[in-house]
Amino acid sequence: MFEEGEHMIESILKRYPKERRFLLAILQDIQRTYNYLPRKALNEVREYLDIPLSSLYSMATFYRALSLKPKGKYVIRVCDGTACHIRGSMNLLEEIKRELSLLPGEITPDGKFSLETVNCLGSCAIAPVMMINERVYGNLKPDMLKEIFSSLGGEENG
Ligand code: FES
After folding, report:
1. How far apart are CA 104 and CA 96, in angstroms?
2. Best substitution site from 79, 91, 137 to test ligand 1's pocket, by max atoms within 8 Å of Cβ?
């Protein structure tokens, strides 16, 4: 997956002078391109900026928007905070497991979906809640999920 887009790293690096202060911007560009920070890409950044790998990793783990693990094109975040838990978030996770064969922390083999659980999305009034990328879905019932997921599949094909 990374090999195919390897030239993308070069084109990202070319946009920036070889200065450490551009590290975050470079990592953000890589994250946007691959949906995570591939190890090979980090090695190239390390060489380009001539900084230790440990500095890269500490920045990559500090910022929530950066991820060392692959994420799907669609990142599903199911809230498992108290309000959502009481109102059935576990049933949503069960349904996602059934529909997409996906457990929290995993990504589908085609790279389309990844799943995370979060503590509170700040929308307790419409619990149970999940987000897919930036979109919030509230008052969810398990039988609503299939349609939501297939609408995203349709978007990709259309
Ligand atoms: S507990 Fe789920 S949105 Fe607050």
Report:
1. 10
2. 79
